[in-house]
Amino acid sequence: MGRRKTQRKNSLAVDSDDDSSVSSSSTMRSDRMSVVGVEDFQFDKDTLLDQALDDLYEKRGSTREKALASIIENLSNNLQHQFVEKKFATLLHQCLNSIKKGSSKEISLASHAIGLLALTVGEGDNAREILTESIPTISQTLRSGSESSKISLVECLAVITFVGGNDMEEIERSLQLMWQVVIPKLGPNVVAVRQSATIIGAMVSAWSFVLTTMHGLKLNSKDWQESISYLSSLLDKDDRAVRIAAGEALALIFERGVLEKFSAEAKGSIDGSTLEGSKPREWFMHIQGLKGKILNQVKSLSMEAGGKGSAKKDLNSQRNTFKDILEFLEDGYCPETSTKIGGDLLQTSTWTQLIQLNFLKHFLGGGFVKHMQENEFLHDVFGFTPKKKFLLDSEHRISSTEKRMFKSPNSFANKARTQLLNKNRMLAEGRNIGHYAVNVGD
């Protein structure tokens, strides 16, 4: 029997400062809604989003950038289902226009907004439309964009494929586009550009995230051999983040049984069947050698002493990750994690779940807890059902400062409510005057 697996309490479990702060702010937003009224609060949010959407038509790039930043904040921190349902197509095409003609900053913002839009609409026809409409623009811009814009585009591509990609061809197309960012298909007009460690790490993380959606892998031995060999080469790179991303990608590939599948095919070929396009015995030996090489690399990285000036936190993160990978490769145990979501725990027990969780936590940032609490698509992804919160009497849970702020006559919600009351009062007075006039006439 292998070693007994000890439950891993990694940074996801103990990283309570970020989660609790986001969770508490999320709770306070819900509480404030009970104080000022849901309709007023929704009016506030919808007005801001409508204004931001209008600003995407402006010629000045800085105006569009501010509008996109506002849209990102709203889609991250609140699930704007009503707004998105009505105007998702308009928002999508304005964001794509920003990618086509905007600065690097605008491209990055628009890419992030499209990813958030996909997560908000969830699975269905709208998500498929987002993927279909976005692919040509993303593909074109990836060829010439800056480093920061390429990272945002790759992450956007990963999210919209994760949500809207339903068939194998769509998923494989996105995976291929990602690989071409770091390993371009060389042609007469294509010059190989050495990409930075930051881009390589982002690409590998995004690629792994999309790979988690693939079931019944269409195995092409040549393509997989190239991918696995490249990921193995990344384990020897200087950049620690790249090594960790490559290690987790390889763990996912092992979890999916890719190498075992090839080994079985090669062994079957040796025993009498055929393996197309390769010499069975050489291919079998190559796979065994590749597996052995990766195992040795993982062992070395799990015990690395670190160099001069090496950040201790980063080094510990690498050691912990590769200890988990080593334990998985040797004994088949996956790391188990727990992440606090408000008053609930989101638990993972596979590399697939862990990679999905890490990527979405990175992409959603401060909106991660809010989405995990309320986004039904993510509930389905993780099989996570948060406890229902009943805010029948929640006013006591917000501070006196907030009460004063939202009850203040200068607050936006209070002004909107006052205008609505004044309008209703004038209409009522008009009706009363009409009623009295009729009575006098009688």
Automatic annotation (TrEMBL):
<feature type="region of interest" description="Disordered">
    <location>
        <begin position="1"/>
        <end position="31"/>
    </location>
</feature>
<dbReference type="InterPro" id="IPR039777">
    <property type="entry name" value="IFRD"/>
</dbReference>
<dbReference type="InterPro" id="IPR011989">
    <property type="entry name" value="ARM-like"/>
</dbReference>
<dbReference type="InterPro" id="IPR007701">
    <property type="entry name" value="Interferon-rel_develop_reg_N"/>
</dbReference>
<feature type="domain" description="Interferon-related developmental regulator C-terminal">
    <location>
        <begin position="375"/>
        <end position="427"/>
    </location>
</feature>
<dbReference type="InterPro" id="IPR016024">
    <property type="entry name" value="ARM-type_fold"/>
</dbReference>
<protein>
    <submittedName>
        <fullName>Interferon-related developmental regulator 1</fullName>
    </submittedName>
</protein>
<feature type="domain" description="Interferon-related developmental regulator N-terminal">
    <location>
        <begin position="24"/>
        <end position="330"/>
    </location>
</feature>
<feature type="compositionally biased region" description="Low complexity">
    <location>
        <begin position="21"/>
        <end position="31"/>
    </location>
</feature>
<dbReference type="Pfam" id="PF05004">
    <property type="entry name" value="IFRD"/>
</dbReference>
<dbReference type="InterPro" id="IPR006921">
    <property type="entry name" value="Interferon-rel_develop_reg_C"/>
</dbReference>
<comment type="similarity">
    <text>Belongs to the IFRD family.</text>
</comment>
<dbReference type="Pfam" id="PF04836">
    <property type="entry name" value="IFRD_C"/>
</dbReference>
